[in-house]
Amino acid sequence: MSDPEHHNPWTTLDSRLVYENPWIAVREDQVLQPNGAPGIYGVVQFRNQAVGVLPVDEQGRIWLVGQYRYPLQRYSWEIPEGGGHFDESPEDAARRELREETGLTAGRLELISKSHLSNSVSDELGFIYRATDLEEGISEPEGSERLQVRRVEWPEAWAMLQDGTITDSMSVIALLHEAVRRGGINTKTNDHARQTARRDKPT
């Protein structure tokens, strides 16, 4: 059922390609904004689909991948992730990325989220999976990747999200899903910890 509140309030007057490479295309649209004022809107169109995998072993431990992210100019801990061509199924791409980055093969792969990763500026769509029944092998990272692989206990992975060590969007989504699966997020405990931190903070 359509909702009149949800109609498109934007009007596209013109569109032009301003940049492209094998991975993205950037277009600039001349638009009328919802208030009727003229403006421009830049949109990044991705030429692949994003996939991420949360590997969970029989003991409930989480596998993470560390690498330096050039756009951020910082080191980042994440779930194994990457991109797949649109002619490759998201599940096949996820299995390939998991194997390439960690050497792991998953006996079971469960889709836990299909998310738009930055919907104010791009059309990038991410498929996030939970991998179990893991078999270890030899990783085969791409030449542009220098990776460090860690297997951590769940409390450590959750703490890395809470303290801001993990900021990657697909990793955050995957860990939140895992927290719910493991019994939910104790908001009362988290609120108490934040209040204690504020009290102990020097003035």
Structure description:
It is a single chain. This protein has helices at 90-102, 154-162, 169-181, 187-200, and strands spanning 11-20, 24-32, 38-46, 49-55, 62-69, 74-78, 81-84, 105-116, 125-135, 148-152. It starts with 10 loop residues before the first strand and ends with a helix. The strands form 3 sheets. It has a 4-stranded mixed beta sheet with strand order 7-4-9-8, sandwiched between helices. The protein has a 3-stranded antiparallel beta sheet with strand order 1-2-3, with no helix packed on it. A 3-stranded antiparallel beta sheet has the order 6-5-10. The chain folds into 2 domains: 11-46; 49-182, Nucleoside Triphosphate Pyrophosphohydrolase. The protein has 4 helices and 10 strands. With 203 residues, the protein is an alpha+beta fold. A hairpin with a 4-residue loop joins strand 5 and strand 6 (74-78). Residues 191-203 have low confidence and may be disordered. It is globular.
